[in-house]
Design goal:
The complex is a heterodimer of chains A (about 280) and B (about 280). In chain A, about 40% of the residues lie in helices and about 20% in strands. By secondary structure, chain A is α/β, with parallel strands linked by helices. Chain A folds into 3 domains: about 140 residues, P-loop containing nucleotide triphosphate hydrolases (Rossmann fold), CATH 3.40.50.300; about 80 residues, no CATH class; about 40 residues, no CATH class. Chain A has a 6-stranded mixed sheet with strand order 6-7-8-3-9-10, with helices on both faces. In chain A, strands 2-1-4-5 form a 4-stranded antiparallel sheet, covered by helices on one side. In chain A, helix 4 packs across helix 5. Chain B is of the alpha/beta class and about 280 residues long. Chain B has 2 domains: about 230 residues, P-loop containing nucleotide triphosphate hydrolases (Rossmann fold), CATH 3.40.50; about 35 residues, no CATH class. Chain B is about 35% helix and about 20% strand. Chain B has a 6-stranded mixed sheet with strand order 6-7-8-3-9-10. A 4-stranded antiparallel sheet of chain B has the order 2-1-4-5, with no helix packed on it. In chain B, helix 3 packs across helix 4, helix 3 runs parallel beside helix 5 and helix 4 packs antiparallel against helix 5. The N and C termini of chain B lie far apart (about 50 Å). The chains are: A alpha/beta (about 280), B alpha/beta (about 280). The interface between A and B is large, with 44 and 46 residues. Chain B: This is ABC transporter ATP-binding protein. Chain B: GO terms for molecular function: ATP binding; ATP hydrolysis activity; ATPase-coupled transmembrane transporter activity. Chain B: Its main location: membrane. Chain B: Keywords: ATP-binding, Cell membrane, Membrane, Nucleotide-binding, Translocase, Transport. Chain B: Belongs to the ABC transporter superfamily.
Chain lengths: ~280, ~280
């Protein structure tokens, strides 16, 4: 079932002439994990805001085309409908902390309070999501007295706890250490396996390749490429447009020129693929 | 300019002991990356280098200055610090004013200020945006303004806190070029980073912190190969090093050319091995 359906979406922020999104059509199936990549300024955050309904409800500006999420056209959706269907994890976690709560525990419960979840049900849900995101030991700390990485996990937890149908994340691992990054990808992967639909903006191509079902490459507000990680993350157009490749892909691409990488093998996007290919390429008959 | 850290301890008000006895020496002209998990003490440590934090115990010397006896304002002439979040740092109405603020405060002559500003803007790709308000720029470009505002101070030591966070391929490449140029000028560059590939390709020395202590300190191709110790502080070796380990190599290739050289050696070895089986242990 298609749960996010964008048809010919073009959007301009107020008082700007250039479109931030230009004729973007996008269909996401329920439970799909879609990653969005692209250079800075490509329209990635704008796409997040659009799917989450911040556009047009908060940002105003000019929206053309249709945006349907969980069966409701975004322009017609009430605030409650939007909140229940989509959760957005902001790029800057600091901007997401409510400012109304003294502890991390209360901060995470804030969304549940607003959804009218019963008091009896709240603690268990909060504790569960804190365990899931690895912040149980921060429960009594102030959400403001945390490191960037810790704050980023709190921001993720405070959205996950509401169990939105569609989870939109704008670079949710930017401040995390390498192991934390992989853990968060794992958590998000599991949410998708349990039926949550995920749209995630991310620069870390190695983990996009390992975890996402589908990748969308945005450039100048348009979709430049779309497909499986293996297809998109080896697409030469990405290099022309300064997206970059992972080191695995780049090393194989260079190695292929002198048959260190098997000439007929697709370029690798994950560590496993790189290992298999180089083993074959370095073997001599 | 050298930085000497002697048995440095630091506790935040409220009692969290962030640094627990750090001793190290950074020589003038070194390129040093600090790695380690969130909360390992990286930012706390480098904030001692420009006097933003004062030791609870032990001391830090920048050249011949003890940071406990020199003001932050004075230390600013020796140590430039680019914050992780540019919004913590920027306050002027235009890019040009912002970038000129530092060198002007250091008392340079107007011609010198102008020259330093021009150079910093060119390095960061901001030439032509002098009149723009930094807050009208995207976060990526604001980060470049924050960088330029420190480069223009021409300090012998430059510190970057997470310079590649949220940056795309092109801006990471720009950042790498800036580091290369600082190196040419003999500056000491200290960078905090979670991006191990960036670390491998641009730094010669790596210090891994964990729990407020130094876990590893040495040449990049030694430290970044220590997967087990790095794992203690939630760091993984860079992509090419992990691939090399999978292939059963002992080398720690930090860049693609070095990795490909190792591939060529491996092939030659096999050609010379007289029909021997593949040399990898599976």
């Amino acid at each position: 079932m298609v749960i996010v359906d964008l048809q010919h979406v073009t959007y301009r922020y107020p008082m700007t002439e250039q479109s931030a999104l230009e004729d973007v059509s996008l269909h996401i199936e329920e439970g799909e994990f879609v990653a969005v990549i692209g250079p800075n300024g490509a329209g990635k955050s704008t796409l997040c805001y659009t799917v989450a309904g911040f556009i047009p409800h908060f940002f105003k500006g000019e929206l053309e085309g249709t945006v349907e999420v969980a069966g409701v056209e975004s322009r017609q959706a009430s605030l409650e409908q939007r909140v229940r269907s989509v959760g957005l994890v902001f790029q800057n976690p600091f901007n997401q902390i409510s400012g109304a709560k003294y502890t991390v525990f209360e901060e995470i419960a804030f969304g549940l309070e607003n959804l009218g979840v019963s008091r009896a049900e709240m603690p268990a849900r909060v504790e569960q999501v804190m365990a899931l995101t690895g912040i149980t030991d921060l429960a009594e700390r102030s959400p403001y007295a945390l490191s960037g990485g810790q704050q980023q996990r709190v921001a993720l937890a405070s959205i996950l706890v509401m169990e939105p149908k569609v989870l939109v994340l704008d670079e949710p691992t930017s401040q995390l250490d390498p192991v934390g990054t992989r853990e968060v990808f794992g958590v998000i992967r599991n949410m998708a396996l349990r039926g949550m639909t995920v749209l995630m903006v991310e620069h870390k191509l190695e983990w996009v390749a390992a975890f996402a079902d589908r990748v969308i490459a945005l450039e100048n507000g348009r979709i430049l490429a779309e497909g499986t990680p293996a297809e998109v993350l080896t697409d030469e157009r990405l290099l022309e447009h300064h997206f970059g490749f992972s080191r695995y892909t780049l090393a194989a691409r260079e190695g292929r020129k002198e048959a260190l990488w098997p000439p007929d093998r697709r370029l690798p996007v994950t560590l496993d693929e790189a290992e298999t290919g180089f083993r074959e390429g370095l073997r001599r008959p | 300019m050298n930085i000497e850290v002697e048995d440095l301890h630091f506790s935040y008000p409220g009692g969290v002991e962030a640094l627990r006895g750090i001793t190290l020496r950074i020589e003038g002209g070194e390129l040093v990356a600090m790695v380690g998990q969130n909360g390992s003490g990286k930012t706390t440590l480098v904030k001692h280098f420009n006097g933003l934090l004062q030791p609870s115990r032990g001391c830090v010397r920048v050249g011949d200055w003890d940071t406990r006896t020199v003001s932050v304002a004075r230390l600013a002439s020796r140590v430039g610090y680019v914050f992780q979040n540019p919004d913590d740092q920027l306050f002027c109405k235009t890019v040009a004013e912002e970038v000129a603020f530092g060198p002007r405060n250091l008392g340079y002559a107007p011609e010198k200020v102008e020259q330093l500003v021009r150079r910093a803007l060119a390095w960061t790709g901001l030439t032509g945006r002098e009149g723009t308000n930094p807050y009208d720029l995207s976060p990526t470009w604001r980060k470049m303004v924050a960088l330029a505002a420190v480069l223009s101070m021409d300090t012998p030591v430059v510190i970057f806190d997470e310079p590649t966070t949220g940056q795309d391929w092109q801006s990471v490449a720009r950042m790498a070029r800036v580091i290369a140029m600082l190196r040419e000028e003999g500056k000491t560059v200290i960078t905090i980073t979670h991006d191990m590939d960036f670390c491998a390709e641009n730094f010669t020395r790596v210090i891994a912190l964990g729990g407020g202590q130094v876990l590893l300190d040495g040449p990049a191709d030694e430290v970044l190969g220590e997967a087990e110790i790095l794992a203690q502080t939630f760091v993984e070796p860079p992509q090419l090093v992990r691939l090399a380990r999978r292939l059963g190599w002992k080398e720690t290739p930090l860049t693609i050319p070095v990795f490909l050289d190792a591939c060529r050696r491996s092939v030659r070895k096999e050609d010379g091995a007289d029909g021997a089986e593949r040399r990898f242990d599976t």
